[in-house]
Amino acid sequence: MTLKPLKDRVVAVVEKPLEKTKSGILLGEAKEKPAYAVVESVGPEVSGVKKGDKIVYKEYSTTEIKMDKKNYIILREEDVLATL
User: Which of 6, 41, 48, 51 is the most buried (most CB within 10 A)?
Assistant: First the structure.
């Protein structure tokens, strides 16, 4: 099943926090969820981001959905703070 966002909405996959660094150091469980995700699809009125962009977003302004063992978020384009 594919989520198709409407109007100015963006659907993105939440990235998991790093469990270990590149040098192999294990990290503890993250206390805060990461506020970045990868864009899966965009609505017809979105012009600032595109599929595949890595975004930073306002955490409190999202709708979270779990489908096919992935955590998705739906948010307005105005709640995207930056692209990486």
Answer: 41
